[in-house]
Amino acid sequence: AGTLGDAAAEKGRYFGTAVAAHHLGEADYTGTLDTEFSSVTPENEMKWDALEPSRNTFTYGNADRIVAHAEARGMQVRGHTLVWHSQLPSWVGSLPAADLRSAMNNHITQVMTHWKGKIAAWDVVNEAFQDGGSGARRSSPFQDKLGDGFIEEAFRTARAADPAAKLCYNDYNTDGVNAKSNAVYAMVKDFKQRGVPIDCVGLQSHFNAQSPVPSDYQANIQRFADLGVDVQITELDIEGSGSAQATSYSNVTKACLAVTRCTGITVWGVTDKYSWRSSGTPLLFDGSYQKKPAYAAVLTAL
Ligand code: XIL
């Protein structure tokens, strides 16, 4: 197949990208998006600060535009993200525990109900674990006031709100086998054993020279899959250029395809022009929407 989306579909997978609503009016941007990709993730438009800037006042417009764009073209949508310490409006952090609990559950319920039946998978909780060797939870209003149980509660609330959506836990620096991914692994194993609803684990997969594609990437994907959850590569970008970058992208693609339950790959942007890595060139299309060697490597690997 001649496009990323079509080639992935032949392998029973999707190939997606993060999308920003304010670029949808740019012809080259939407042209590349619509030609190549079969799934979209709103880059910022479904975060708490965008959707509920003040308590119980919801602003869905920008995210609605992305969902409508995707729906009209038969693309899937990944919802990103319901409960996260970042891009969280300050009013949330100011609430006492009982209020915070009801605000969290209300946010999940309102947002998931708004797009009920339209979102293939939600990142229910994002980045709840610390970096480094401790395997501990990250400090956040949710962790600090509600304790470890906030993640379980968020997933149970999410399942009730939209039973058709796959519910994912998403994080970074969990791409290889390490203390942080071990902690996520233990949580997912516990959830599966106790019947807490979880369907998927998202590996963000932001790579650079300091944090390259781990040699045990496939093994890590496989061990999560063996717990009975799908794995999705959710925010892939790899700093660099030329053949080195292409090889890394190829390795990521091959690792996912080698695991039956690795159901799709999302790159974190259409073009280097708008990457969140402001000075970097971590994506598949350059700033002029030309296909890079990394693009060809992914298409060959698919
Ligand atoms: C980033 C966006 O790409 C930026 O535009 C924004 O300023 C900050 O957030 N992990 C995540 C994503 O889960 O939501 C982040 O996206 C990148 C890191």
Walk me through the structure.
- An 8-stranded parallel β-barrel has the order 1-2-3-4-5-6-8-9, surrounded by 6 helices.
- The chain contains 12 helices and 9 strands.
- Helix content is 41%, strand content 17%.
- With 302 residues, the protein is an alpha/beta fold.
- The longest helix is centred in the middle third of the chain and has 18 residues, at 97-114.
- The protein has helices spanning 4-10, 27-36, 48-51, 61-72, 90-93, 97-114, 141-146, 149-161, 179-194, 217-225, 242-257, 293-301, and strands at 14-19, 39-42, 76-83, 121-126, 166-171, 200-203, 206-207, 230-238, 262-267.
- It binds (3S,4R)-3-hydroxy-2-oxopiperidin-4-yl beta-D-xylopyranoside.
Structural class: alpha/beta
Placed side by side, the strands forming the largest sheet appear as: 1-2-3-4-5-6-8-9
Whole-angstrom Rg? 18 Å
Largest sheet: 8 strands, parallel, barrel
The bound ligands are: (3S,4R)-3-hydroxy-2-oxopiperidin-4-yl beta-D-xylopyranoside
Number of helices: 12
What is the average of the pLDDT values? 98
Which stretches are low in confidence, meaning pLDDT under 50 for 5 or more residues running?
A: none
Number of strands: 9
The backbone outline, from C-alpha atoms, is globular
As a percent range, the share of helical residues equals: 40-55%
Name the helix and strand elements from N-terminus to C-terminus, one letter apiece.
Answer: HEHEHHEHHEHHEHEEHEHEH
How large is the share of residues in beta strands?
Answer: 15-25%
Distance between the termini: 9 Å
GO biological process, one term: xylan catabolic process
Domain GH10: 1-301
Family: Belongs to the glycosyl hydrolase 10 (cellulase F) family.
GO molecular function: endo-1,4-beta-xylanase activity; polysaccharide binding
